[in-house]
């Protein structure tokens, strides 16, 4: 029997919260997360994990100490471990995140947005 198909559109439609990633799938110790963003996130980095953002809809700006990357639908950015960054969504953004299952969403920062990996909701 083939593995199940996962509809990212259905997963994203299943919630409204922003800055609260949900686990849509997992493979090889990695989570595939779906999230909605609006407004500014917190400056942070991940000491041991790279992080990938794939925009589904909207425009996501990712600020860095020395500039920014602007992503539109279908565009991807991989942020290497240790690189300080701050996602900003001036409009509602739907995004897919790829990162190790142990990744804490706010990295080294304790913030109101912090969700521990074991507390992530699955959709």
Q: Top keywords for this entry?
A:
8 strands; 123 residues; Jelly Rolls; 8-stranded mixed sheet; mainly beta
Helix-strand layout with pairing:
Blueprint: H1 8-13, E1 22-27, E2 30-40, E3 51-57, E4 60-64, E5 67-71, E6 76-79, E7 85-100, E8 121-122
Parallel strand pairs: 1-8
Antiparallel strand pairs: 1-2, 2-7, 3-6, 3-7, 4-5, 4-7
Indicate the CATH architecture.
Sandwich
Structural class: mainly beta
What are the secondary-structure elements, in order, as H or E? Answer: HEEEEEEEE
Domain count: the total is: 1
Looking at the structure, the CATH topology is Jelly Rolls
Number of strands: 8
- CATH homologous superfamily annotation: Jelly Rolls
- Which CATH first-tier class would you pick? Mainly Beta
3D architecture notes:
The structure is a single chain. The protein has one helix at residues 8-13, and strands at residues 22-27, 30-40, 51-57, 60-64, 67-71, 76-79, 85-100, 121-122. The chain has a single domain (8-118), classed as Jelly Rolls, CATH 2.60.120.10. It contains one helix and eight strands, in the order αββββββββ. By secondary structure, the chain is mainly beta.
Q: What's the short story on this structure?
A:
The protein is mainly beta.
